[in-house]
Design a protein that fits this description.
single chain, 210 residues, alpha/beta, Metallo-beta-lactamase, Chain A, 7-stranded mixed β-sheet, 6-stranded mixed β-sheet, 13 strands
C-alpha cells in the first residue's frame, strides 16, 4: 500500500486494487491541485449520505460519520469524537487512522475502540486542531507503528498553522531530516517500541506554487 500526503488532512491510500482518498481538498480551492481519481472517499467531517455510499458506475463511493463499513475491499471504522469522526481505514491489511481536525486527547475507551493502528495521521499545526505538544501526547497514548503528521503550514494552502518542524523536534527527530515523497507498506507494520515518524511532502505545495 502506498500512502501520499496531499495537504491539510488529505491523504491518498493506493492499494493493489483500490484507491482511497481521505478528506479531499475541494477542487478549485487551490490552483493546480493534483487530480485524484479515488474509488472510495472517506470524510472525517459530516455525516453519511446513503446515495453517495451506494456503488455508482464510474463514481467513487463516499463514507462519512460513525459506523463500520466494507466497500470495494476496504474496511472503514468511524468513531465520533466531538465535532469530528476519527476514521480507521484498512487497505491491503494496513490500518491507517486519520484524526481530521481533532481538538482533544482521546480517552482510554476511545483508544481501545480504535484498536491497533499501523499509521496514525495526526494533526500537528495547531489552529483548528491539535498542536505539536498535544499531538505528541496523543501519539504516545495510541502507540502506532508509524506517525505521519498532517494539518501543518504548507505554503499556498488555507489556514493558520505552525510548521511541521515543531512536531519533529517534539518527537526527537535529529536535525537534517527531510520529507519523503511517499510511504510504502506491505501488510501491517507490526508492533514497535517507538513509533517511527515519517514526514511526507505535501503534494499540494508544488501545485499551490505554480
Amino acid at each position: 500500500m502506498e500512502l501520499t500526503y496531499i495537504g491539510l488532512s488529505c491523504l491518498r491510500l493506493r492499494g493493489r486494487d483500490v484507491q482511497v482518498v481521505i478528506d479531499p481538498i475541494p477542487q478549485g480551492s487551490v490552483s493546480g491541485l493534483p487530480r485524484l481519481t479515488p474509488d472510495v472517499i472517506v470524510r472525517t467531517e459530516g455525516s453519511i449520505d446513503p446515495a453517495l455510499l451506494r456503488h455508482r458506475q464510474g463514481q467513487p463511493q463516499e463514507v462519512g460519520g460513525p459506523g463500520e463499513y466494507e466497500l470495494r475491499g476496504v474496511s472503514v471504522f468511524g468513531m465520533a469524537v466531538d465535532g469530528t469522526t476519527v476514521m480507521r481505514v484498512e487497505v491491503d491489511d494496513v490500518r491507517v487512522a486519520s484524526l481530521g481536525r481533532l481538538r482533544r486527547q482521546l480517552s482510554e475507551d476511545e483508544i481501545d475502540a480504535l484498536g491497533h493502528v499501523d499509521v496514525l495521521a495526526v494533526p500537528v499545526g495547531g489552529g483548528d486542531a491539535l498542536g505539536a505538544s498535544d499531538a505528541t501526547r496523543l501519539v504516545n497514548a495510541v502507540e502506532p507503528a508509524i506517525v505521519v503528521p498532517v494539518r501543518y503550514h504548507v505554503a499556498g494552502l488555507p489556514g493558520e498553522y505552525d510548521g511541521v518542524e515543531k512536531f519533529a523536534k517534539e518527537m526527537g527527530l535529529s536535525e537534517g531530516w527531510a520529507p519523503q515523497a511517499k510511504l510504502n507498506l506491505t501488510g501491517g507494520a507490526g508492533a514497535s517500541d517507538e513509533p517511527r515518524v515519517v514526514i511526507l511532502e505535501a503534494r499540494a505545495a508544488a501545485a499551490a506554487g505554480t
